[in-house]
Structure prediction request, 688 residues.
Amino acid sequence: MDGQLPIDTRPWPVRRDAALHDQTMQQTIGVVTKRLANAKVTAYAAYPEANHWRQRAVEVKRQSIRQLEEHLATFTQQVESHGGKVHRATTAADAIQTILEVAQHHQVRSVIKTKSMVTEELELNRALENAGIAVRETDLGEYIIQLAHEKPSHILAPALHKNREQIHALFDQDALVYHTEPPASEDIVALTQYARRRLREEFLAADMGVTGGNFLVAETGTVVLITNEGNADMVTTLPRLLVSVVGVEKIVADWSGLIDVIQQPALSGVGQRLSSYTTLVSGTRGPDQWEGPDEWHVVLLDNGRTQLKDTPFEDVLSCIRCGACLNVCPVFRQVGGHAYGSVYPGPIGIVETPLLTNFEVLPELPSALCTLCHACGEACPMNIDLPGHIVQLRQMKQERHMNAIGVTRSYRWWARFWATPHGYRRSMRWARWGQWWFVRHGRIQSAPGLAGGWFKTRDMPPVASMTFHEWWDRTRGKRQ
Amino acid sequence: MTETDALRDQFQQQFEALGGHLFYASRADLLPEVLASAYQTMVDRYLPTGPLQVVYWLNSDLLGWDLHGVLGGIRGTQCISWPQGGRQQAVQGQWQDLLAESQVGITGSAWAAADTGTVALYASPSTGLLPSLLMPIHIILLNQNRIQPSVREGLKRFYQENQAAGRMPPLVKLITGPSMTADIEGQLVIGVHGPMAIAVVVYEESIF
Prediction:
C-alpha cells in the first residue's frame, strides 16, 4: 500500500528561490556538510578495520530485509515476552491512531520526544497537539525548529538553517511564555544552557516518552537509540510510559548483526566511532527496578516501505539515516533540506519520497535536484545505488508520461541528433551558423526556447569555426 | 607492558580524545586517594562554587565501601547511596528530585571498550542510570579487567553473559564521551542534557 508523506506544497521554483536567497542557511549548511563529509573520511582512515565492518553491515542489512516478515515476527514475540507490546501500522494514519489510543488510555497530558524522522513522517506532534496533548522535542535542533514552527533542514542537524540571533529571539519568546529566566546572552553556550534548564523541567514532569529507533534486533527484542546529547536516555529512563515508533526496515536479525551495524551511523554521519550515547531498550523494568518504563509500546511503521521489497529499489530499505549522502551532495550544499519539500531531503529523499508514495507527491525531485555527479553513490556506507535509482526514477516518470510535453519533445529532438556521430556533427554545423544571433563579446550569451534557462547564470564559448573532426578530415584525412 | 596495561592505554587515549578525564589507581590500596583526587579535580574545574551533593552506587567488587569517608572532607560534600533493591512509587518523585538537585553522580560500570573509549552501564535494582545522566559531573569507576579490546568484543561478551539467562537487561547505556551537540551553527557545545564533564577512575582488581 502506498505511503503518506507530509509535503511543502509550495512549487519547486518557489522553494528553490527561497533557499537560494537564504544567506544564513546557505552559509551554515555549506560549512557543516563539508566538515561532516571530511570527518567521515578522516574517521575511516584512522580506523583500519572500519571498511571491512561496513561491508559486513551492508550484508547484514540486505539479508535482514530479505526475510523482513520472519524477523518482525521474532521481534514481536521477544518484545512481548519481555513486557512490551508491539503494534503494526500499515499507514501513517494507523500509527497516529495507535499512539493516540495509548496516550488517551493513560490520560497523558505531556509528552517528551527524541529526534525521530519517522515521527516527522507521521506529523505526530500536530496529531498529539490536536488531541490536547503537549509535546516537547528534546533534541536541541528539534526544540529550536519546534519553537519556530518549522521543519528540519538536515536529518542529523535539523536547525542548521538558523543562526544564533534567530535562536536567541526564539528562546527569549519561549522564556516569556514559560515565565522563566531568558538566556544570558546570544552566546552559543548560553543558548545551550537555556535549553538544558528549560527542557530539564519537561523531562522530569512528562507523562509519556516517544522515541524513534536506529535499529531493531529481532533475536533479543531490542530497540537501539543513538544520540549525542543524551536526550534519548532521559526519554527512556524517566517517564513511566514509553512509545517507540520505528520503520520496519530498521530490523536486523540478531545480536551479531547489531554488532556489525551499530557503529555505522556515527562513523559515516559525523565521523565518530560511536555516538556519545547508545541506548538499548529490551523490555519494561523489572519489579525492583527504579528506572525504565512500566509500559512499553513499539509501533512498527510500514507506510509504503514493504512495497519496495522484491523490486530493483529494495536496497533503499538498508538506509541507516546517517546523512552521508546529504553531506556530499553539491545540490544539497546549495539549497539545504527545505527546498526538497519532503521530510527526507538530499539524494536519499529524492529516491524515497516518490517511491514511498508511488510518485503521488513531489515527482519533480529526481529530475530537478540532481546533477548525476554520483557523489552520493560513493558516500553511501550501505552501498545503496542512489545515482542509478535516480536515473531509473527519471525513466519511470517518462514511461508514466509525467514530464511536460515541451520537455519531452526537446530532449527527444536533442537525442535524435546526438545519438549518432553523423547527427552530432550536423548539429555542430547548424549551431555554427545559428549562433551568431546569440554571440556577444565572443561568447554565447543566450539561446532560444528551453535552452535559454541554461544561460541565465552562465555563458559558453561559441562553436569553433573549424571543429577538430573537420580539421582532421582536411589535414590528416587527405594525406592518407 | 602487559596486555591489560596496553588496553588501558588505548582506552585512555580514546576516552581523553572525546573530552573525558582518566585517573588510574595503580595499586589496589591507592583507590580511595585517587578517587578523592579525581573528585577534587573535577569539581574544582567544573563546579568551582556552590554546595556539593553526590549520588553513587558501586560495582559489586567494591560493595560496602562508604564514599562519605573518602569525599566528605572535600568542600562539605554530602554523599547519598543509591537505594539498594525495592522501590516505592510514593517516594519515586522525591528521589528523582533529589537526583536532579545533586551535582555529581558516581557509578560503577559493567565494561569498557578500548577502541572507541566507551563505557557500558546497565540499569538494575542496585545500579541506576540516572546518576550518569542528571548531574553536571559523572565519575565512573572501572575495574581494569573489564576493559575489552573493542566495542564489538564488549557487545559480544555482554550478549554471552545475558542471553544465557534468557533475557537482556531492559535498559543498557553505552557512554562514549560527554553529552554534546553541534545543533547551533554547527559549533560543538559540551553538556546539553547529560553531564558536561565525565571522568573514569580505573582500578585494579579486588581491593577489599
Summary: The longest helix of chain A spans residues 23-45. Chain A has a mean pLDDT of 94. Chain A is about 50% helix and 10% strand.
